[in-house]
Amino acid sequence: MSAPILELRNVSKFFTKRIDLAGKIANMLGSDIKAQTVRAVDDVSLSVGQNEVVGLVGESGCGKSTLGRVAAGIHQPSAGQVLWQGGEVVGKKATTGRSFALGIQMIFQDPYASLNPRLRVADIVGEAPLVHGLVTRAELPAYVDDILNRVGLDPSYKRRYPHQFSGGQRQRIGIARALAVQPKFLVCDEAVAALDVSIQAQVLNLFMELRAALGLTYLFISHDLGVVEHLSDRVVIMYLGRVVETARTEELFARPNHPYTQALLAEVPRLDARKRSYVPIKGEIPSPIDPPPGCHFHPRCPHAMPRCKVEAPLLREIATYHTSACHLNDQT
Amino acid sequence: MSAPTLSVRDLATHFFTRDGVVKAVDGVSFDVGRGEILGLVGESGSGKTVCGFSLLGLVDPPGRIVGGQILFHGENLVTAGEERLRQLRGKRIAMIFQDPMMTLNPVLRIDTQMVETVLAHDKVSAKAAYARVRDTLVRVGIASPDARLRAYPHQFSGGMRQRVAIAIALLHDPELIIADEPTTALDVTIQGQILFEVQQLCRDTGTALIWITHDLAVVAGLADRVCVMYAGRLVEQGKVDDVLDRPLHPYTRGLIGSVPSRTARGQKLTQIPGMTPSLLNLSEGCAFRSRCPRATTVCETSPPLVELRPGQAARCFHPHLEGADSERAGL
Fold first, then answer.
1. β-strands A322-324, A316-319 pairing
2. pLDDT in tens, B276-290
3. Do A60 and B240 make contact, defined as CB atoms within 8 angstroms?
4. Does residue A5 contact residue A84 with C-beta atoms inside 8 Å?
5. Which residue among B196, B224, B254 sits closest to A280, beta carbon to beta carbon?
6. Chain B contact for A199, CB < 8 A?
């Protein structure tokens, strides 16, 4: 792997719900209301190499979107470091900060909510490059046409508003907006989840074309293992704020190590799996407000041992580029 | 197969809007037998949901069933009155909707809603109704049903709410369940649990199930037969194995190619160009022809649904036939 373009070191992100006035008064009167903290991302380290596609997989509430937002610089991490091309970015406003902010762009899940309905496509795509001085006002129309062509939209549509487009076309506008500032890195947060299968295939193909043409690096966040498997070089599996397993894609799908990964792979409906009987894993995803102690997965895990209830397993390398956080690996 | 539980013939549901007629369902025919799981697959706007709603007479104006028959054990539901439909709904035909938050009443406790459903159709004591409700919750895999019954819908997670919705559908041991994208909003592991329950129930009770979804992979794992809808019409139907392994219609083929699969990792997906047409004032002919690589001028007339292989039919002038098929068809 080449030198990492983006590195997250022991990044955590907590969201705290402060005690409101009523709560404070109730506490004065003797009740016991505590501030609730959600550990959305808990001590996660991740490095992404140049031109690599990393798939980040997890179920709802596992913190994958929060991690993506921290990586994209939308959220400041509560603890830990974010390094962009080797330099730390947290708190930097000067040159590194600017290069980071422009270098990483995000593509959002809902193409209906992420575009300003009152701006024309030309303005949505053209605003940022103009503000950042990447193009002059005179060059802007040609530049916007070029970007729209690149994502497969007819430039003659650029005077239109977002509501005049279909879901797939809107997602293309979102991609065009991200590409307009010439980023090196795209964080795609469930970027194809809201699209129909045939449109999803078009957008996935577009992502792969852009990667080859522009040398882009992706952090591809999705709950859809099929999509992630198709696109990614490396896969990171998260469960309740922690990374439980990372490996190269072939390795992970061929030899999943963590019981959660194994369960996840077994549950995924596939075209080639017919009339199968589902053997579901038990239980619900616990709330991240009050996660189970020790290994977060132990209440649902078929292999849980007493040790899992008290001690959180560390992420350890079990093969080349394959790490997993499970106590089972300590035996043998 | 014995007489099918439900037999739909040339069903047509149109919406008469100010801008024109939307033919959301246009000449759809299929059968579902006892204990059979039928997957109804289509993209958004293909008319699959309207089709499911039509079966229970749930289409609101400006929509109207304009033609065809829905034969439930031989009784035509299209001409049945509202009172007769009310007797059937929930009792012999049940429906599970996509979003359980929308179908459960947020201000009533679960026990109130479920007991009400029992008493709507059966004259039993409140106590007997409660016992049945409790048993049904256990059947769908809800632990500690007594505590859960006293809770309100917002106190449940998405997966649990969907289980409650399924339990309500099961209260009267219906002969037919229509499920409209019931697992689309759920996580993979929770979806696995629900599919497991549903599969078990159909096997045990002989309930016929129509599973409406956009997800071919779910259908692959669950259904016996599959119907593929495009722009209000069935373009292909047949056994799951036949349709998924040897699709006849170019649209089915494109749809299967669009699903990222294990074999084609990192390769370009075979995408279908263009997008689904608007159903408003849809012109005559095959609706797929503008996106179809095989389209010719003959496609400007509507192709009929032809059984090209035993048990597998497609609505196409240029189906993907293999050598053996052409011989059998005498072409």
1. antiparallel
2. 777 776 778 888 888
3. no
4. yes
5. B196
6. yes
